[in-house]
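Methods — Computational structure assignment.
A single polypeptide chain was analysed. Its primary sequence is given first, followed by the predicted tertiary structure written as structure tokens.
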Amino acid sequence: MAQQRSTLKRSLGLWAIVGLGLGYMTPTVVFDTFGIVSIQTDGVVPLAYLVAMVVMGFTAISYGKMVRVFPSAGSSYTYTRETMHPGLGFLVGWSALLDYLLLPMVNALIIRIYMEAMVPDVPGWIWVVLYVAVITGINLWSMNSTAKLNSFLVVFEVTMIVVFIVLATVRLSQGMGQGTIFTLQPLFHHGVEPVAVLTGATVVCFSFIGFDAITMYTEEAKDQKTMPRAILLTLVIGGAIFFIAGWFGQSVFPNVDNFKVTDDTLPEMALYVGGQIFQIVFVAGAFAATVASGLASHASVSRLLFVMGRNGVMRPQRLFSYIHPRFHTPAFAVVVVGAVSLLAITPSLELISSMINFGALVAFTFVNLSVIAYFVFRQKRYKTVKDVLSYIVLPLTGAGLTSVLWAFLHADALIAGGVWLAVGIVYLAFLTKGFRRKIGDFALEEAPDADYDGGPSDGGSGSDTLLAKGAAEPEPDLIS
């Protein structure tokens, strides 16, 4: 059978990609988790976000470096596969799937919870089916349409955050909370412990997941050279929204004593600063944020499944690597993600949420290590101070800071991730006939795109690697 020659369509500009990243990050989550983080940090929520943004910044730099060398939709899976070993790359990709596959399900579950609260007489499963059908259909139809709808929803939710800030300013001028925005109390006050801030930072770090996921859209970017900039812009803009919203939230609510529910403070925060009408509108903004995250997360994980299918490590290979000839989307992978999302009919949010962070930390760790593996061990770029700083110090710092997050990871996430990884090892043993066969031999004989030049990995087939021409040349100062 001849290889399907259709390819992903390069239709995404810089800001469309940034919008997808922001949609994935869900900016309104700062209000949902405000109560939890405020308690953990002793009332310095914005400081926790600032620390988290710095921690994530080192890993974002590593993503920017690797996406220039391997502009593939496979992200951390491809980087590890091509710089270290195909088998290890598979396990990294498999681990990342735990995070990326579950997030669309979490969004479907949140929508179910919202709708059950508003329309209790309608069975929850109906809302899950309708939501998943719409999100799957949009992702199947067009990546460009997905990006446009996502951008609209992101603009709406950010507008709601701006309105909240304006209303909070009015309340502060009336003497509510700190009584002024010109105070350092949200950043530091007596009794704040560094360990408490770090604990809070480990929680909010996962709000930044999204800057990494946009690397899945590399093969659909109009200009793949914009990807490093898109990664940093997503991180900085998202971090700024979190910080500013957290600052005003903490100024108006120095503590959580007046909240009836601290596990999700968004509705009450909106009520206290703007009244019932604003509460309704603000919750609608949170609803829009969830849909935007659903669109972006569904799109990104389907690209990862597609690339793994193209490499032959997801079976049936021809189906996972299939691109619809008219829509230019990975049709089968999109439908599979939709099918998995339907599982949101029954589980609890707490159960699923406890499992999603394992894969993200695996991806972050190995992206940083991939920088060292490629630039230091393959390119031998360690002879100047700049090279040592760029390709050893920065990625090692990123890996080290990620290890701190590992230390604070919930036990349930470690257990679920360990079981998932064990399943992946068994599956890999099956694919390689007891590890006797090279995993690179599974890739489709023909590259799906003329830009594919073959990769440097040992045993790799070259069907996935999009080696950027001149990748060994020095990078722009933005990333270096």
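Note: Residues 444-480 have pLDDT under 50 and may be disordered.
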